[in-house]
Design brief:
4 copies of one chain form a homotetramer.
Chain A lengths: L7 H21 L6 H7 L6 H6 L3 H24 L5 H18 L1 H12 L7 H21 L7 H21 L5 H16 L4
Helix pairs in contact in A: 1-2, 1-4, 1-6, 4-5, 4-6, 5-7, 5-8, 5-9, 6-8, 7-8, 8-9
Chain B binds a DNA duplex through helix 1 and helix 3.
Protein name (chains A, B, C, D): TetR family transcriptional regulator
GO molecular function (chains A, B, C, D): DNA-binding transcription factor activity; transcription cis-regulatory region binding
Keywords (chains A, B, C, D): DNA-binding, Transcription, Transcription regulation
Chain lengths: ~200, ~200, ~200, ~200
DNA sequence: GATGAATGAGTATTCATTCAT
DNA sequence: GATGAATGAATACTCATTCAT
């Protein structure tokens, strides 16, 4: 169905390498995540194998991002189905994000390490892609009259960054209760967005 | 009060190198900010000159951080003097931060790239230092009855990250109006923190 | 018995590099035996190839020592089998050492340059290992009554250094007759150790 | 009286630098005895000052050697005056050498570190200079009939190396009794050189 | 005479990538 | 498909030496 059909072996290897890359980037930070380290993590005999399956380090990193974003999307899609109102959607968005951070802390750390390690030159398009779903919810709420009249871009940016907060926090304090954290964020943004009565 | 007396030439060179380092880290990200790149930016004859003035890359980075933090502190100190209420303090905090981001976008980008680039192993203490002033304001507001009863840590983290948001945004959209952005954040967090009537 | 199985190509390369290192260390002294010099001697494309095969300079030097000690041990083992008396053993020890120095002058010079170059922090244990076989012979001779009552440590140190003497001498006067040199040393230490009648 | 008259200040500085060089070479080994380290030891403000007073590192090292050899010669000259016999002279030579090693361990260590560090390409002339006085004693003894008919070069080399032995030994075992060591050597070489009766 | 600054070649080591087998 | 070997540019950092002041 897809543009380039890959053999089973090939995609299995690619998946294995991507998994090792995630583990390594999350563990050592992007700067120290060399092909050598990734190959060791994947128990590969040669870094050449990575180059064989990925044109560049950049392609590998892009694939890692696609994998992580794919997981997030799937996770979110399952949870966000047909919300009854914008504020319910917002609540679900916040909760689902923190649930994902709790469920997949390694993937989340890898994601952030890539962005912050300066792996790719800052790409506004990627940022926009992450912001899009939030902005959709916010616009819906404003149109339906649930939400007050704020700047959608500012609110979306703030919300997006608020759910990334605990990812770092988890590194320093792994026992953090993300369910409680989510509840606080829900209240915070409910008050911040709700149309005053 | 002065730690070590340096000659004029030396501190001029150090300043020049620090400035070039800021420019380079802001522009290329921490990972790609090698001595070679910094030397090129500063038009130095060799990377050896950097090593001549800084014992380590770490010392250089530390000096960059001190420079940036120094600027921020001076800027904030001037603006935050004797606020009359916690909510006024919070407003000032948000405004001053965004003003600084508007005035010194390069310094700000460098700062964030350093932290996110994993230049220094993630250090909870540093994070706490950044959070401390915000938490103080929030506790004050809760004690005085201005603010409602939220989790201080969560709110502080969210506020801190909210003011970092526009730093990246500026790279993609330099025309962003940070005064308006600040006004939105002030309203957002006023609603989020204020004791309901 | 074998520690790590290496491929043929790898051990060939390692051997080639070790040989070049020996040549270089013997010729220029340890201090000037940089990876660059060794690579030039071995006609390698880059110093990176040395780092590819040896984790450290230390590992390379250790391998050089193992190579040289291995050769010496093999050489000595063949010659020292079941001596009939302590004085015969001492004679054989002296002769075998000088024969080796004549047969492998480069290896010997490399060995001494490494030790004297301070490549490894002065290690009493290594020195003791070199002294051990001599001390064993001397104690045997004292117990059997062949040798007089001298301080074993002093005599052993003197003997050990005496066989190192010609290694340097060879550099200045390559025509030196080491067989005659050995004969002189045999007589010297026979007189010095023998129980007076 | 001397070829190049130097000002007082100049020779004082040179002496100070030489002293610091000795201390540094003895302490850190030749390889790590950089101008920077020597300047620090001498509390000099700049390594440039060393270059100002010495054309090369080589000249500095040569001057160090001259200083050390000068001290040794003076020490020896005082002790060796008009010996009554070759065997007495040999005894005195051995004792004086070990006394010097005990009195000036730093100078001795520096001396050896220079030779062994490969500081200067192996120079047969220097070695010959060290051997000369010993050979003179040995020839005297053979001519007077006190000594047996051995190869002077071999015996001299062995004697020379025997007195260097304890210098290394002192590093590992500083409590070594060099007087006793000297007595052992005296006996050893008395037996080895004496004409059999 | 002395100082601090600068230079540029040198150090070992790491890296992504290529390629023959 | 996979492997081990090789490449050469890049990394931060050190060094002896030069030079203007």
């Amino acid at each position: 169905m897809q543009a380039k059909a890959k053999t089973f072996t090939e995609s299995a290897r690619r998946a294995q390498i991507v998994a090792a890359a995630i583990e390594t980037i999350a563990g050592l930070g992007y700067a120290r995540a060399s092909f050598a380290q990734i190959a060791k993590e994947a128990k590969l005999s040669s870094t050449g194998l990575i180059s064989y399956h990925f044109a560049n380090k950049e392609e590998l990193v892009r694939t890692v991002l696609e994998d992580v974003f794919g997981e997030i999307s799937a996770f979110m899609a399952e949870r966000m189905s047909t919300p009854s109102s914008a504020s319910a959607a917002l609540r679900t968005y916040l909760e689902a994000n923190l649930e994902f951070a709790a469920a997949q802390p390694t993937r989340m750390r890898a994601l952030l390490n890539i962005f912050l390690g300066g792996a790719l030159g800052y790409d506004p398009a990627t940022e926009q892609a992450a912001l899009e779903p939030v902005e959709r919810i916010l616009r819906w709420g404003q149109e339906s009259g649930e939400f007050r009249d704020f700047d959608v871009r500012v609110m979306a940016t703030t919300i997006r960054r608020s759910v990334e907060g605990p990812v770092f926090l988890l590194a320093g304090a792994p026992e953090t209760d993300l369910t409680a954290y989510a509840e606080e964020l829900v209240t915070l943004f409910d008050l911040a967005t709700r149309r005053p009565t």
